Every structure is written in C-alpha cells, then in structure tokens.
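[agent] plan:
  1. take the single chain provided in the ticket
  2. run structure prediction with default settings
  3. attach structure tokens to the ticket
  4. add a short note for the reviewer (M.T.)
[agent] executing step 1
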Amino acid sequence: MIFVVLGMHKSGTTLVSQILHHSGIDMGDFDEGVSYDKGNKYERESCLALDMDILGTSTYDVLDLAAPADPALTDVQRARMRGIIDECSRKHGTWGFKDPRAALIYDLWATELPEHRLIVVYRDPAEVWPRFKWHGLRKHLANFAYAGQYLLRWQEHNRSILRSLESSSRDRLVIYYKDLMSGDGEFARLEAFVGRKLIDRRKPGLYRSKGRGDVFLRVAEWWLQLTRGLSTSRTMEELDALRRR
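[agent] step 2 finished; step 3 output follows
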C-alpha cells in the first residue's frame, strides 16, 4: 500500500510522516540525528525534487510558492514519476511520501499512482502564523503583507486538497493537528486507517505556535474575503466536515 500525506506547511505533515516511517512504512531516507528545525522534514527526496520541478521553483520559501493556474506534467516529468513509483514499490512494498507542495499538484500524482490512501492534516492558520510573523521592530508593519501572503498560501494548499477530496472517493483520513496533539482520538483513528500498531512520536512540549490571530491576520482575513471571496472559517468548516465523515 502507498500512503500520501498532504497538508499545508507546518500543519503536522512531518509528524505524521515520522510516525509512519518509524512504524514500518518507508517514507524515505533520513538522518535521524538531524532535527526538524535543522532540516529533517521527513520528505522523500526524489518526490520533493520532482514536485519542485513540476511547480517550476527552486526556492524553499513557503510564502513565495503560489498555486499554479493549470499544472501539467511533461513527458520527462511523467517518466520520472513512474520511475519513483516503480522503484519504491519494488523496494519497499508499503511506502509513502510527504511534501506540502504536493497538495498543489496531487491530482497529477493521482494519474500515475496505483491504489493508495490519502492522509490529510490541517491546522488553524492562527496557530501557525507566529512562525511566519516578523517579530522585530524593523519590519513590524511589513507583517500586514506577510500575513496576507501567508493566509493566501494556506488557502491555496487547503482549497486544492478540498477540491481533490470532493472529486474522488479514494480512501482518505482527515486529521486535525490540534486534536492529534491534545488527545488520543486522532492517533487511534490514524492507527485504524493504516491498519497497524503505530509508534507514537508525538512530543507535546514541541507543540508550538498556539497563539490566536492578531491584528495582522485579522486584516489579512478581511482582505482575502473582500478581494477573493476566501473565508478562513469556511475552509476550516469544510475540513472539519470531511474529518467527521
């Protein structure tokens, strides 16, 4: 079986990938001595490189990567994708990959992947915003622009996921990160979905950025609602509804 983990950056996809990997589902080759903050995001290198090529980007800056208008695979990219799938299936049998960028182009992967299961992780953007916010005085007012850019990226990733889920009956599990970190219900759901006993890699002390939205984020929410018709609360409600199904 193949497991694909989707979600916005810093939504909990790394934790889920880590749990799966330590439970016998190969998610890639990782240096376990390197922490998350030092760069170990539990992302399969070949999938990450292909996603970046498809998206036409060389930057790892989350806020600079906008959703593509009409993503497509070249013949070379499709051959690379097939090669990754064939090699991983041959070597591992049960495997998967995680890359937040894949949320923007999952439908392209779906054209080549054999039977697989989706694990979606989502998080309230107000919890994550402090990780992107400029905390010094020098660029304090620039946070109005940063907040707008961040919230737009959050919407693009999650709206892309919602569109993919709503148009497919594929097996999927939707997990709310806050509940995963604050209780055992979501972890039990993950175990049942995967069909095996999982190694718990959660560390509640690392559950960071639990703050509420500030004026910068509230202005960004108002602006996106006004100019693009994007509502944070509506997107969260739709994700909540899919999780309850």
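[agent] step 4 note for reviewer: Residues 2-244 form a domain with the Rossmann fold fold (CATH 3.40.50).
[agent] ticket updated
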